Target: Lipid A biosynthesis acyltransferase
Amino acid sequence: MIAPLRWIRHQVTDAATAVVAPLVAALLPARISKSLLWRIAGLSWLFAEHRQAVEKSEQRCFGEPVGLLQHWAWTNLMDAMETWRIALGLGPRLDIQGQWPEHPGFVAAGIHYGSGIGALWHLREQGLSPRLVYRPVVRGDMPGRPVLYLWARLRVHLMHRLCPAGAIATGRSSETILEALREQRSTMMLVLDTPGAPDSRWQLTVGGCRVGLRTGGLRLLEEEAPRVTFFHGRFDRDSGLTRLTLRTLDAEESGPAGLMEVMQAAIDEDPCQWVLWHCIEGHCSAPA
Model:
């Protein structure tokens, strides 16, 4: 495809999947929204950019067709819908299971699964002063993708809005994170399953593959031993709600080994809602 047509295709698909479809769904009842987005997720041409990577992950990690592309696309569309609902002041559609601690000073530890922005919103609503640690967005990450870049910037702006004490961008941020952990006036929010080296000390099994993880966040928890509450937001396929599960961990579970077991159990319940299927190439070791 010649460059101008490729550029137009990218803008159309980015606008459809990041703006139009999730924004319309954000204004509809939950059951209608989830059904509409499921149908849109079945339009594989809208997700052509990541289709090959997701299908390769499906073959490698499941060994048979499980409809991973449509499930992965639906999860991303649902997450975008929740983002728009928060941006519009409507709030996410949450079914809360469990509770946060009453006071700040703990770590909210999660995974790239279902939707996490609802957990960030809920922390703020509970007065727990969240501080999300996130990877910053730079224009060079998305060359020729102005719609996608603006969408990413909107999400970052929203994250900062939900963090009264300030979100923390990765990159030379260790001192800021340590200071925030030790002062215990805010709630540090860490997402711990970012793929890293395939021979990483810490690995998760997704489908039938072992994925090595980056070690920074887990090493921090190992060294500082803070109080940890684990969260994950799974989209309910019947109601269309985000089932936000909160679990305060004991001292043993809060260490990396125990936390890895908790993370693994969450993913095992519905591995298709893990949102990183498109980017595990180069991070996998031999099938588990």
